[in-house]
Design a protein that fits this description.
Helix content: over 70%
Oligomer: single chain
Largest sheet: none
Mean pLDDT: 79
Low-confidence stretches: none
Structural class: mainly alpha
Amino acid sequence: MNNIYSNQLKSRTMRKVYGIWFMKRVLPWLAAEFVVLSTIFAGAQSYLSFGHILNNAVVRVKYYSLLSFSDFLMSAVTNADLFTLTMLAGAFFVGTLVVRDTIRATRRMRAGNFLRMSRVLYSR
């Protein structure tokens, strides 16, 4: 009986330790990446109209075919100016980093391998 309470106490304590560790080590990097990504999207939103682009894409798929969506994407990319393509590439790059770091962090947290976790985020 005492062993059961000991395991529960250990489990709760370690969960709190892991949570504090996550807040101090992982969250700042993810927050910084989200800030950069939000800044890129805010800049793009002031320059582009995502609503009109999405509406045009939906109309293209709805009234033509799913294959015509690739034609829409190709024409949108080839007719875009350099600033738009740069914003798109930057958002894609930072978004990829956010997804990669989030997946790595959750995998390492589930595995309980926290010593290697600090190398994941700081080994850029």
